[in-house]
Write a structure and sequence with these properties.
By secondary structure, the chain is an alpha/beta fold. The chain has helices at 29-32, 37-40, 45-49, 52-65, 85-88, 142-148, 161-174, and strands at residues 4-6, 13-15, 20-25, 68-74, 100-101, 104-105, 127-131, 153-159, 178-187. The protein contains seven helices and nine strands.
């Protein structure tokens, strides 16, 4: 397939489809849906919901172009053995990871709130990485998966811009990938 020209800053990028991956970061029900944990904390989910349509457009285009696609979900094991105390104790009791929330236990793998929104649901051939931190490379197989596929460029979309997307972008750069955040496909 011919390269795809992507307008970017500080320079435009020529994407080789066989060496490019799309990473859809943490578009989970608890973060972006009305009635989810984010809203329970006082956040306005509408600010995050606005990325669903452009992310869907990018996801559809990536599928048509044959890009390698990975989805991530932030969440923890039910026994919380993979949750650092600093992250666990960040919120008061009743609002902590593992406590009951509007869509099941907060940030626990397998709970309803942990699931990716239906509009961006992974297809059966796409990888889903569950991660215990903000950075998608932290304690996951992401680097191994990308390098084994010969990926050189990672396009990043999802939530939240200033936390999970940013830490994933900087980690991707540290791992030697050309990481590009799709500006209209991220929100905080």
């Amino acid at each position: 397939m011919p390269p795809i020209e992507l307008r970017a800053r500080p320079r435009n990028v020529e994407l080789q489809t066989e060496k490019t991956a799309l990473l859809v970061v943490d578009v989970q029900r608890d973060f972006v849906c009305n009635g989810g944990y984010g809203e329970f904390l006082g956040n306005d989910p509408k600010l995050l919901q606005k990325v669903i349509p452009p992310c869907r457009n990018v996801l559809d285009a990536a599928r048509r172009a044959g890009l390698f696609i990975i989805h991530t979900r932030e969440g923890h094991l039910p026994d919380l053995s993979d949750c650092p105390k600093t992250k666990l104790n960040r919120w008061p009791k009743g609002n902590r990871i593992g406590d009951p929330g509007p869509m099941g236990r907060i940030l626990i793998r397998g709970e309803a709130g942990h699931e990716i929104v239906p509009e961006l649901a992974p297809s059966p051939d796409e990888i889903v990485i569950d991660k215990p931190g903000k950075n998608s490379f932290f304690e996951t197989e992401l680097d191994h998966i990308l390098s084994s596929k010969g990926i050189e460029t990672v396009l990043i979309c999802g939530v939240t811009t200033d936390v999970c997307c940013f830490t994933t972008m900087t980690a991707a750069n540290d791992h030697g990938y050309d990481a590009i955040i799709l500006e209209d496909c991220v929100a905080s």
